[in-house]
Structure formats: C-alpha cells, structure tokens
Design goal:
Layout (H helix, E strand, L loop, with lengths): L1 E7 L10 E8 L5 E5 L10 E4 L2 H8 L5 E5 L27
Antiparallel strand pairs: 1-2, 1-5, 2-3, 3-4
C-alpha cells in the first residue's frame, strides 16, 4: 500500500480550496481510496474508490492544477492506528471525529 495526497495549486471549481485537499492510498492491487479534507461540514465525510491512480488524476487533476504527491516511495506495510475511542458516561453518547 502506498499513501498519497492531492496538492491543489489552482482551484478550478472554487470549492476545494488550495493546498492538501485530499489524502488517499493505493492498494497493492492498484485500487485507490480517497477522502477529501476540505468539506465545509465536518460531519460530511466525502470519500471514493477508483480502479487506479490514473483515474484519480483524470478526474481530479484538472489539467495539472492538482497533483498526486506520494508519501511512500514504494509499497509498504503502513500501520494505521485508530484514534482512542472515549468511554461514554452512563446515559450519554459520544460523537467521534
């Protein structure tokens, strides 16, 4: 698995903003998962899956305005540790995220 982010240098749509706008990973079989970091509503998680990194670039690259920046040089066994889940008090709910 290789991790990457989308670096947007020009915002063609006027929605995503500039800088690191999404992060993702490419699995060893070529599939990619992508999650957007720029949602105006923190409860609105926007994510998608693609057959390959070429498709990610085709859809979100906007003719070179957005670049895929690799975090990992090659496939690696990245360990993703979940955030600690708070223990709710009796009778209360906990909102995660």
């Amino acid at each position: 698995m290789k991790r990457f982010y989308l670096q947007r240098n020009q915002d063609a749509s006027g929605v995503s903003g500039l800088g690191n706008v999404a992060e993702g990973c490419q699995f060893d079989n070529g599939w990619c998962a992508l999650i957007w970091l720029t949602s105006a509503d923190p409860d609105d998680e926007v994510h998608a899956f693609y057959h390959g990194i070429d498709r990610v670039e085709e859809i979100h690259g906007h003719g070179g305005m957005t670049k895929v920046v690799w975090i990992d040089d090659e496939s690696s066994n990245v360990i993703v540790r979940p955030k600690e889940t708070p223990t709710p008090l009796p009778g209360r709910t906990v909102k995660l995220g």
